Amino acid sequence: MEKTLFQKIADKEIPSDMVYEDEMCVAFRDISPSAPVHILLVPRKPLRDITCATAEDAALLSHLMLKVGDIARAVGIAESGFRTVLNTGEDGGQTVPHLHIHIIGGRSMQWPPG
Ligand code: 5GP
Q1: 100 catalytic, yes or no?
Q2: Which of 13, 30, 41, 104 sits between 20 and 30 A of 77, alpha carbons compared?
């Protein structure tokens, strides 16, 4: 099966500004950041979106959630705060069909978003 864009980035076939990687996931800077800090945290497993995750993925999802704080600390936004976003499907604004968590910070954000 054709690799997703984010698999190609995880496998370093497409360059990125990677800030973290391990055996289960990678994190790299968004090419079109919506804030001074904008990281994408991506599992190596190409789940299309969160609706495709099953009980088999429980350890992976837990790993990703734990990495959010580590990555926020590493890029210097843990203290000031940040937003995590998980877009799903067309109405959710998902443009890359490979599960990913946005970690966005470095400026104050409003809620609800526009
Ligand atoms: P989505 O809209 O699917 O939630 O988020 C996809 C994100 O991937 C967007 O914020 C977009 O800027 C980012 N993106 C798309 N293509 C690339 C790329 O080639 N490299 C990087 N680093 N980010 C990308």
Answers
A1: yes
A2: 13
